[in-house]
Every structure is written in C-alpha cells, then in structure tokens.
TrEMBL record:
Coiled coil: none
Pfam families named among the record's database cross-references: Lyase_aromatic
Annotated positions of the 2,3-didehydroalanine (Ser) modification: S153
PROSITE patterns linked: PAL_HISTIDASE
Top-level EC class: lyase
Record cross-link 5-imidazolinone (Ala-Gly), residues: C152-G154
Pathway(s) per entry: Amino-acid degradation; L-histidine degradation into L-glutamate; N-formimidoyl-L-glutamate from L-histidine: step 1/3
Homology family: Belongs to the PAL/histidase family.
Posttranslational modification: Contains an active site 4-methylidene-imidazol-5-one (MIO), which is formed autocatalytically by cyclization and dehydration of residues Cys-Ser-Gly.
Keywords: Cytoplasm, Histidine metabolism, Lyase
The reaction(s) this protein catalyses: L-histidine = trans-urocanate + NH4(+)
Name of the protein this chain belongs to: Histidine ammonia-lyase
Length: 521
C-alpha cells in the first residue's frame, strides 16, 4: 500500500462548474492538494437540487428519484421508501472485489465526481458536495477494489465504495494510511456522515470518473516517459556508433507529423557535440544505414507522442463534461441519457497501450544489439567485464523481453469485450475501467524497459573509453552513476535495475540531460 500522507504544501484547487486541468487532477490525486468548492458551484448545486425536490413531489415517475434502477426502473417507489432506496443502492453496488486500488486513483475518482456534482447537473444537495470535499481534504481514502466496474452506467462499484464511506459505512484509509472504519475516520476528522436524500445515491455513483482519473495520471507519466525514451534512444545510437544524419530536420520535414519532429529534435540536441559520434564521421565510415531500431526511433516515439495528444483531446472534453443519469437541465427538466457510457475514454485508454508496447519493443531491440558481439561494433559480448566468466547484462535483456511480452498482451483492447448485465438492460458496456487498469501496468512496464536500455547504453558508453559521450548523454551517465557503479565484474544486478527505474520515474535522468540541452520536447 503506497503512502497516504498528504502534501500540505500543495495548493488548493478550486472546484466549480468549469473543467479541471490535467495538472489540477494530478495535484489532488498524487500530491495531496486540497479542494475548495467555489461559490458558483454551490449556487449551481442548490439550484439543481430545488428542481429535484419539486419533481419528487409529483405523481409522475422520475427515474432514480421515484423509481428503481437499471432493469428495476419500472417499479414506482413510494415517498416513504425513497431514502431507503438511495442507501440500498449504495450498499448493494459497493460490491467490488480483489486488491485495493491505489490511493492516487481513488483520490482522482473522488475529485472528478466532485467536479460533476459541482456542475449543477446532478441534483444533489450542497452538503453532499461539501462532505465529499471534506473527505478529500482530510486525506480519507475509501477502500476501492480492483474488480467491479464494467465502465458503463459509470464506474458503479468503485464509486459506490466512495459513496458508502460518505454515509459512514465501509472501510477507509486515514491520512496516515491506516485501515479504519469510515465512521471512525470521519469522527476523528469532524465530518458528519451523510443521510442520503432523493437521487443522491445515484448521482454519487454514475460517472466515468475512475477510468478518466487513471487516464489523466497515465498521460502525465507518459509525457516524461516518452521524453526519456528519446534520451535512451540517443544513448543507444551513440553507443552503437550509429549515424545522426537521419535525424536532420529537413529529412523529418518530409513527413510532417508533429510528434516525429519533436522526437527527432530531441535526438539532435542530445547527440550534439559528441566525441563518439565525431569519431566515425570520416570518409572511411561505411555505416550508410543503421538498423530500424536506431534509424526509425523518431518515427515510433513520435507516433506515440501523437497518440498521446489525441488522448489529451479526449480527456479535456471529458473533464468539461457532466456525467450523470438522469441529468438536471437548467430549465428544470430531469432527463435520462447515455452520457455515462465509457466508450470515448475506453478507446483512448486502449489506444495508448499500443504505442507503449511498440516503444518498449524498439527499446528492447536496441538493448539486444548492444549485447550481441556480432552487431555491437566492437563492444564486448553482453558488455561483460570478462565474457564467459561474467555474463554482463545478458539477463537484464531477458527481463526487458519478459516485460515487452507482457506489454504486447496488455495492448489487446478491453473495450471490444462487452458483457451484458442487469437483465440485459445494460446490454452493451465499455470495459473502460479494465482498459485503465491495464494501461497503468503498461506505463509501469515501459518505465522499466526504458530504464534497462539506459542502464545498458550507459555501460556501453563507458566501454567506448577513451572516447567520451556528448555533453547531454554524458550528463545522463553521470546522474546514473550516482546510484549505479560503472562497468566491472558481475554484481547483483536487480538493485541496479531498480535504481535506474527510480531515476526514470522521478525524472532525474531527463533533468540531467536538460541541464545541458535546455527543455526537451
């Protein structure tokens, strides 16, 4: 279980009818920023609640207010049973199972549901929105489980576990990460549990917030990770005595994809002023064309960047949405709709897993070339200190290959696998939550693959001595050497791989390169 301690230095994020930014979501979910409901939000929430309370007095059935849910929507619920209806909904839908979902995911989910409540389109009371905000600010994180969402009618089970905590039931992690009953944690924080009123249980659980939160977190990580992939590619090109002529701007402009241009620009500045590159530029160089894994790095890494840009467009639209069913319109109408369907988010969650697998696959191929004495252009077999006695990085590549194989499986889309539910009322679902869960594993896998490539290319660059790498790639090697020693006889390799993973994940290696190049794309 990751640490649950909040970062009290983080800024407060205002939550209102307007869309949140990606950075605001990350700040609340990962950095422990607090939230503040705006006056505009509270006014919008109060106005929509008035419409719901007026509708609840009518004899005409209104879905989710005076009827059952899903396939049970045909039953009219008498007024004296409607509070029980909302509580029963939350309790029955809090049916998740499996391991706990990460704290940052649950906080993202809570924030995004709060934003939809603040839109004034759900019909909850202001106190309901305030209570959800109070849980976030107290660092109380409901226990949400891996399994339970089909990504349609929203992330029902995950959101229901959050709603269960709001009524003082179920388990939560407090600000210290300790597992405690929700009622106990709320009492310690001075938060009064909710008594749900008409429509509120439904409004708390009917959104795409879990899958969207995981998308935003993955996009945030991929920005840095794709830049790191360019750093790794540059180091491998340099270590394998490749050519940088193929990265020239005029060649890249012949195929004007923006991601490709950015990636190639990164490679140019990363390889600038490299003594290793200069050592084989003469007329006697026979290296006319490098292997695809070296030559085509901007095309693959760049296509991944463009896929990420598309995902950001979809996510920005989703962050401006009000996902609920039924929804309260400004004129007072309460209308059923299908906006809870997770397809738009599910598709891009699946889409991102494809370039992740491909970027990792290309990185593994570059690593393998450095270890093969027949293709590494003068490097010792497996970069071993004494080949035969030592195995060098032979098994590091095995680890890479195992991860890449897993990433290829994770690239199989979840969103094509609809399983009908609720007695065929919900006969087509998005499986967006599943797509989001596997994307998180994909991002982690790419982090590890890129780290092993950098670990290996740094060793190869050291073995090119007395030739030295360029200033930027050399700075990356130096940053790695603060945690991992240089070449020598075989050592316990797993901790060194993990140290490289941490340096990739926290951005230290990109920062080292940028200390020479300035900001990379």
């Amino acid at each position: 279980m990751e640490s649950a301690v909040t970062d009290t230095s983080a800024a407060t994020v205002p939550v209102g009818p307007k869309a949140l930014t990606f950075d605001e979501v990350v700040a609340v979910a990962r950095e422990g920023a607090s939230v503040r409901l705006t006056d505009e939000a509270l006014e919008a929430v109060a106005a929509s609640r008035a419409h719901v309370e007026e509708l609840a007095t009518r004899s005409t059935p209104a879905y989710g207010i005076s009827t059952g849910f899903g396939a049970l929507a045909t039953r009219h619920i008498h007024e004296e049973l409607r509070a029980r209806l909302q509580v029963s909904l939350v309790r029955s839908h809090a049916a998740g199972n499996g391991p706990e979902v990460e704290r940052e995911v649950v906080r993202a989910l809570m924030l995004l549901r709060l934003r939809t409540l603040a839109s004034g389109r759900t019909g909850v009371r202001p106190d309901t929105a305030r209570t959800l905000a109070a849980l976030l600010n107290a660092g109380i994180t409901p226990v949400v489980h891996e399994y339970g969402s089909l990504g349609c009618s929203g992330d029902l089970a995950p959101l229901a576990h959050v709603a269960l905590a709001l009524i003082g039931e179920g388990d939560v992690r407090d600000a210290d990460g300790t597992l405690v009953p929700a009622a106990e944690a709320m009492a310690s924080a001075g938060i009064e549990p909710l008594t749900l009123a008409a429509k509120e249980g439904l409004a708390l659980i009917n959104g795409t917030d879990g899958m969207l939160g995981m998308l935003v977190l993955a996009m945030h990580d991929l920005h840095r990770l794709l830049t790191t992939a360019d750093v790794a590619a540059a180091m491998s090109v340099e270590a394998q005595l490749g050519t940088d002529r193929v990265f020239a701007a005029d060649l890249q402009e012949l195929r004007p994809h923006p991601g490709q241009a950015s990636s190639a620009a990164n490679l140019r500045v990363l390889l600038a002023d490299s003594p290793i590159m200069a050592s084989h530029r003469g007329a006697d160089c026979t290296r006319v064309q490098d292997a695809y894994s070296l030559r085509c790095a901007p095309q693959v890494n760049g296509a991944a960047r463009d896929t990420l840009s598309h995902a950001e467009l979809v996510a920005s639209r989703e962050l401006a949405s009000a996902i609920d069913n039924p929804v309260v319109l400004p004129d007072g109408r309460v209308e059923s709709n299908g906006n809870f369907h997770g397809a738009p988010v599910a598709y891009v969650l699946d889409f991102l897993a494809i370039p992740i697998a491909d970027v990792a696959s290309m990185a593994e191929r570059r690593t393998d070339r450095m270890l093969d004495v027949a293709r590494s252009h003068g490097l010792p077999a497996f970069l071993a200190d004494d080949p035969g006695v030592d195995s060098g990085h032979m098994i590091a590549q095995y680890t890479q290959a195992a991860i890449v194989s897993e990433l290829k499986r994770l690239a199989v889309p979840a969103s094509v696998d609809s399983i009908p539910s609720s007695a065929m009322q919900e006969d087509h679902v998005s499986m967006g939550w599943n797509a989001a869960r596997k994307l998180r594993r994909s991002v982690d896998g790419l982090t590890r693959v890129v780290a092993i490539e950098i670990l290996t290319s740094a060793r190869a660059l050291d073995m090119r001595s007395p030739l030295r790498p360029g200033p930027a790639t050399g700075a990356v090697v130096s940053a790695l050497r603060t945690r991992v020693p240089g070449p020598g006889p075989d050592r316990f390799l797993a901790p060194e791989i993990e140290a490289a993973v941490e340096l990739v994940r926290d951005g230290s290696l990109v920062a080292a390169a940028e200390s020479v190049t300035g900001p990379l794309s």
